Amino acid sequence: MRFSGRLFRPGDKPQAVNAGRADASGILDINDVANNQPLSFGDIVLCVDSPGTVVVTNVAIRDNQGGLHVDAFAVRPIAGLANAVGDEKQTLASIGNGFDLSRPQSISAVCPPEDELQTWNGGIELAVQVSRPSGDVAGGHGLDITYQAKGLTATYSIPFGILACAATCPTPSGWMPAGAASP
């Protein structure tokens, strides 16, 4: 099998599966966030389409509103979502558990065939650390993950709402990605 150098979530091609948070099913909203307080979230399982390696070089908030800033990102092997990073008010460095911000963020786990999706435990978890600089609400409509493979650069987008709020987060339809269900 030839490596085409494409990044996916398990089940993206051609079937669909809930691969943790990154399934466009709603909004990740984190309440009571102080200005510049670090927030980390994961549950984003990624894989490649065939044997080979991609290196994640950047993660950005899509349709950023309010200046939500990506401070760090890292990947690690994960055996099931029960061990995934939830929504933590701390840095990725303090979480540790296999997240090493000092090394290249490489993904080489191959996506499973459709009939193995429910039992597959070979993915790579992406975790992202963000901060809200000021204001009441900051967020966006997903993540744009930039990566390199075979000397080329590409972007993989994952739609889901992300909110970091000074108090209780609102749930207006304007924060929902297209096609997402209300929380």
Structural description of this entry:
- With 183 residues, the chain is an all-beta fold.
- It has one domain.
- Helices cover 2% and strands 40% of the residues.
- The chain has one helix and ten strands.
- It has one helix at 92-95; strands at 7-8, 27-30, 39-48, 54-61, 69-77, 87-88, 105-107, 124-131, 137-149, 152-165.
- Strands 1, 3, 5, 6 and 8 form a five-stranded antiparallel β-sheet that branches.
- The protein is globular, with a radius of gyration of 16 Å.
- 34% of the residues are buried.
- The model is unreliable at 13-25 and 176-183 (pLDDT under 50).
Structural class: mainly beta
Element-level helix/strand string = EEEEEEHEEEE
Helix count, DSSP H or I runs of 4 or more residues: 1
The major beta sheet can be summarized as:
5 strands, antiparallel
Q: Kindly estimate the percentage of residues that lie in beta strands according to DSSP.
A: 35-45%
Shape label: globular
Radius of gyration: 16 Å
Average pLDDT rating: 80
Number of domains: 1
Q: What fraction, in percent, of the residue positions are helical?
A: under 10%
Poorly predicted runs are: 13-25, 176-183
Q: Distance N terminus to C terminus? A: 41 Å
How many strands? 10
Question: How would you describe this structure in keywords?
Answer:
183 residues; mainly beta; five-stranded antiparallel beta sheet; five-stranded mixed beta sheet; disordered C terminus
